[in-house]
Amino acid sequence: MNYFDRKIISIHNDEELNEAEVILKGTVNRTVRKLPLATFQEHEKQSNGDGDESSDQLTNQSVGGVQRARELTEANPEDSLPAVYGGLFTVAEYFTRSFDAVKGKFFEKVIAAEEDSHRLDVDRNLGHLLQYLLEPELCWKSLNYTRETLDADEEDRLSDLDSITFDLAENNQQANADATLFFEEEGTLVFGEHRTSVVSGGTTARPSLMRKPRALVRELTKSNNIVTIPDNIGQEYDISPDSYALTELLNEVGVEEIHFHVGILFNEKRTPARWEEDPQQGTSRRLIEEFEEDLPTNLTKDLRNISLDSQNLQLEFEVPVSPNSDETIQFHMSFLYGDVYLNTIYTGSRIATGESGSVETFDSPRSLRGIISENDADDLWLGFSIAERENKVFEISTQNRNNAMEIADLILEDDQLTDRLVEFRELCRTGKRRKADRELLAFARDVSEMYDEKRDNQYVEWVFGGNPLNYLQDVTIETLVYDSISRPLFLRRFPEATPPEPEYEKDDIVEASLGDVRHTLETYLFDVEDDTTKKQNIVRAVRNKTEYEQSGTNIPASEDDPIDWDNAPTKSEIGDLLDIATPTSLLKNMASGTSKNKGGLFEKRGDKFAVPARVGHRMGRFMRDLPEDAKREAEQPAVLSS
């Protein structure tokens, strides 16, 4: 990646992204939307753990992982994995409370999506294992990132199976696996559970890896019936309609072996982990030894032929299909690393387990670096790096401003740049991706050059060691991303947001100040935690249909320009225009507020709604065009009834 080849995915609609980008955006979308807020000093403060909620952890130390990622990427310019790794995890750690969950979902989906022929399932809980065992291909197709869709018959088949849940112990019902793969021809059922790094979570994290295999083994050693197969399912899938214990059912559908692999994906240098690079291997050895010691005994089915090889981190035994039965299911458990783990999951083969295992033993090995390097988006690590530096500029400045704020105001003060920003916002929503990408870079370059000519400070030189113009272009990119996915720049025309008083109730009759309006815009209309597209479309429709007496357009001539109520839209007209049920409650919320904000976006007269002139004046050219679907509907000629 370089300053002229930025790859920003967050400003684009999902259908325009490739599969790898959909996965990345789907798992860290909220984090990416919060990043620009940090640049503009609008992010939520995080506690440092001592109860002081006003403290902020955005420091040079917290951004160290991002800087390290950039150094590793520059040392290996053909390999973008370190940048993705560092950006994803260091940023998520700062902006989310549970960033380990974010990491897990990301890698699970990427690994599953890479090998579509394997139909690898992710996050499958033990209680709904039957659905996957009988329809692995359909379960895989139903994942929202696979680009495949189910037809009506397939939907019905999955729905029928979804109603059949294993009756397991409460603690075992929701035991999920990061990866589940059934090799029907070999009769091998594979589970994978992994940690991202050899240092993920310290020594306290690895014990949690044993919860899922422990739950599985406890259920395997019981002989109570956990499911009844109805006649229609039995006939559809050639299973005798009957009640089954877990091992009996697995045997019935053809499972002869169960492999449970615990994987450690990356080393400390953010490349695929290897056996000899694990500083916590002693913990893994202790865990597998303790697991063997705790294997269930004196239940209805005793395990047979237990074999522990702690040096190679492997444990094997046999589980009788039923008490005193000669039929057994083989169980294998092992700890694996990096590409060896990945290929062992993909193939169902155990040829590379143990200390001497090598990825080279596989016929056509796949690489974690290869499949994850495709996710070389700049959004995360670029955004966090800009936020960190611009926070330093804010501290240095005596005016409590930074370059991003100056650039934002430069755009808002220039009519041509404002129009260009409005067009760029629409291009991100409706235009082709390649065109939007070109305009993002061109727009950022033009604005950064204008700002560079007028700035009278050396803040860039103080926080950035390279070409100042390159840095300013990155700041401008982040400013445009802020406008596209977080909060529009026009909010800067309003006074600082003022949250409502604690005693404020929704039905209170209050006059919302412009500070109250900005609070409504930030927390209700542009809430970074939720999808507010429907609300935004309502505002665009009302704004489009609001006219003012002096200007005669939907942009008021001044803050005092009276609303032309004769032509103001009714709530039913707004609903018809957007093809939604009459949005009465949303319209009222934006007018009179909720328990969390004072509204103020609309004025209400009877069943009509309009944008107050003082609000419309500050919005200016922004959000005054109809959404595309409504625009096409409005352009249709009226049909005369006969």
Quick overview of this protein structure:
Helix content is 45%, strand content 10%. With 642 residues, it is of the alpha+beta class. The strands form 4 sheets. The protein has a 6-stranded mixed β-sheet with strand order 3-4-7-10-9-8. Strands 1-2 form a two-stranded antiparallel ribbon. A two-stranded antiparallel sheet has the order 5-6.
Report on the structure:
The protein is α+β, with helices and mostly antiparallel strands and 642 residues long. Helices cover 45% and strands 10% of the residues. The chain is built from 26 helices and twelve strands. It has helices at residues 19-39, 64-75, 81-95, 99-114, 129-134, 136-141, 152-162, 170-173, 211-220, 231-237, 246-252, 281-293, 338-347, 368-372, 379-396, 403-413, 415-430, 433-454, 459-463, 468-486, 514-525, 533-545, 571-578, 584-592, 613-619, 628-635, and strands spanning 124-125, 176-177, 179-183, 188-197, 227-228, 243-244, 257-266, 304-309, 314-320, 328-337, 603-605, 608-610. It has a six-stranded mixed sheet. Strand 3 and strand 4 (188-197) form a beta hairpin. The chain is globular and about 90 Å long. It starts with 18 loop residues before the first helix and ends in a 7-residue tail after the last helix. The model is unreliable at 45-57, 59-63 and 637-642 (pLDDT under 50).
* Dominant shape: globular
Q: Give the fraction of residues assigned to helices.
A: 40-55%
- Multimerization state: single chain
What is the count of helical runs?
26
Q: In angstroms, what is the radius of gyration?
A: 29 Å
The profile of the biggest β sheet is: 6 strands, mixed
How far apart lie the N and C ends? 63 Å
* Unreliable sequence segments: 45-57, 59-63, 637-642
- Estimated share of beta-strand residues: 5-15%
**Could you give the count of β-strands?**
12
Spatial strand sequence of the major β-sheet: 3-4-7-10-9-8
Calculate the mean pLDDT score and round it: 85
Task: Give the class from helix and strand content and strand pairing.
Answer: alpha+beta
